[in-house]
């Protein structure tokens, strides 16, 4: 910035005089080693970088450029979760782990963004999960897709359960992405192997059969059950209230525990009903040893309690999920609901 380009009136402002008096250099390419240390110091457990020009991320460019015009790079962050919390049949414990780890991720991303801003770079840290751009629902509501960015940066590979598996931490991770309007001196490369063991424990654990043995994935089945107290499930619950003739009619449709659970999600943070695919996954260097030592013992300890748990499974009418749940889990209540999404 030069005084010649500033009007005389503005140049006489005290703030302008102070800025013009100090010597500054425009920030250039971000040093990858410096940036990595900033991210680790901020609380991330692992980090890697990807270019916005990466062809594998072409679908993200329009969206991230709208959020931060001039985005040049992605900073992909990993935060570990405590495994036994995620594995617990007490799903309040698992959900607290998801939410607490998410707070750590958002705090780490905020600190990194602050460090970048102080170094002269433009950057934003979209939320790890919610809040999202709900005015676009039921279309794409996320600012940036964390999973493909992490894969492109070399932080893991997508398993058949559609979760990223980190080579060391397994799938017991949460992902975050920072957008920065500057290039980084070096970018990561995708892993040359998949940490996924193809053990199919996630197939066996999913109570609504969303994960198929052949690798197919039924997103709707997963969403209707696991995300029962998010978006569409909340809409269905509200519709049930509206459709009920009176309080007795409503109580005949929705149990006290279901109402209490919805209240808890609305009052604190939305809770997942399963995420069992994450709980049982044995992949990752830090995770795999008990599975290798005693597979049956591992399944008895981790898989069976989730399969045997008495709970309500939410499914759409006449769906494969309904047929699977009724056939595979006769001891679990199967409840037919609406997706809460118009035209589904």
Strand content: 5-15%
Looking at the structure, the CATH topology of the largest domain is NADH Oxidase
- How many helices does DSSP assign? 16
How are the strands of the largest sheet arranged? 1-2-6-3
Keywords: Iron, Iron-sulfur, Metal-binding
Pfam families: Fer4
Organism: Mycolicibacterium moriokaense
Protein name: 4Fe-4S binding protein
Would you write up a description of this structure?
The protein is an alpha+beta fold and 344 residues long. It folds into two domains: 155 residues, NADH Oxidase; 136 residues, no CATH class. The protein is built from 16 helices and eight strands. The strands form three sheets. Strands 1-2-6-3 form a four-stranded antiparallel beta sheet, sandwiched between helices. It has a two-stranded antiparallel sheet with strand order 4-5. A two-stranded parallel sheet has the order 7-8. A hairpin with a 5-residue loop joins strand 4 and strand 5. Helix 3 packs across helix 6. The longest helix has 28 residues. The chain is globular, with a radius of gyration of 24 Å.
